[in-house]
Amino acid sequence: xxxxxxxxxxxxxxxxxxxxxxxxxxxxxxxxxxxxxxxxxxxxxxxxxxxxxxxxxxxxxxxxxxxxxxxxxxxxxxxxxxxxxxxxxxxxxxxxxxxxxxxxxxxxxxxxxxxxxxxxxxxxxxxxxxxxxxxxxxxxxxxxxxxxxxxxxxxxxxxxxxxxxxxxxxxxxxxxxxxxxxxxxxxxxxxxxxxxxxxxxxxxxxxxxxxxxxxxxxxxxxxxxxxxxxxxxxxxxxxxxxxxxxxxxxxxxxxxxxxxxxxxxxxxxxxxxxxxxxxxxxxxxxxxxxxxxxxxxxxxxxxxxxxxxxxxxxxxxxxxxxxxxxxxxxxxxxxxxxxxxxxxxxxxxxxxxxxxxxxxxxxxxxxxxxxxxxxxxxxxxxxxxxxxxxxxxxxxxxxxxxxxxxxxxxxxxxxxxxxxxxxxxxxxxxxxxxxxxxxxxxxxxxxxxxxxxxxxxxxxxxxx
Length: 464
Ligand code: BGP
Fold this sequence. Notes:
By secondary structure, the chain is of the alpha/beta class. Helix content is 41%, strand content 17%. It has a single domain, classed as TIM Barrel (Alpha-Beta Barrel). The structure holds 6-O-phosphono-beta-D-galactopyranose.
């Protein structure tokens, strides 16, 4: 297999503010949801590690960007930490010290020949807004987010041309309010939907501000739609996959790309009395302001089958009433993360966007392989010999490039993550980076074998 990688095809890497920065310079009043969760329930975080130190990117970013330059990344995606960006969230008073840090990171990236892409929220909703307004349950928070976006565009828009509102906007409320597996453990399915709607609405409003403000570049959202595969061709299994798709994928894809929620979803929400509070005006704003492009995070396939049991009527409604997960016997697994490896999903997602979402411009904003105990693979010089990661990237890129040949508008691939970093709960258990981070006080960095390989494919533009 030898494939040419188109000249302009993005070959980058991603991370987020909270998963790398650490708390150096953070004020006590600037906790995000993640910081508070970590403070309140640190025992669920692997080895008690979390966002407090992370990779200390806040101080070490010049070293990381030097590594990015060495590898030759074309783009780097990270987020602005909303919770650290303000001293006063309601009056919009910016923390100049933190905002300068973002300036320095942007400039350093450009000096290294790397284009930054910025996300306005990668789960970093401020705790203050959670406590005072209930977070994204509140329309006030939608307004404050739109104000924040405008301030960020005004400040960085002269240099940053590619923006995203959210990273995986469905995730926090799914874990917290739908599944109730995370602090503060409140089960509330209607609130889950309300958060979803408000993040859709906030995206549409920010798109409007971006376009009306005449900022240069484009504005999108990073979604994590899963490619659904029914267990069998039976109508019951197919229906299970379709309903899953409505609740977890189309709930964002349809309004943000096509301008409206799927009517089948609306019917289900009404039937189960979890329809979100909204106005006609809000739906109109969503209709008028689709995103310019999409980032897609894609790791594993979602296999589904029809449920075997009747739903217990005393259990609050959960979409799981309509489906069960299906584990394909013999599937290839990343055992560290418990995720199936199925590279074909890249091609399948690309064809779906082409056929059902008018081939809107998009790119893979995350894909990668988190592996536990990577020190096992360090050679005598301490370099991680991560051939498994090279194979993983190669297989996924191969499928993506095939999709491009088949007419997909996919513009690139960004690996999660550039350096090892902190995962929610798993912390540093599974390592994702092209660059290893030691957990010493210095957070010492070293390039893995995959980093050298990535450098080579970026230089040669050939995938072998
Ligand atoms: C995505 C998130 C990232 C990152 C990644 C890896 O869903 O956008 O923030 O964490 O998944 O997953 P995990 O950290 O759970 O191993």
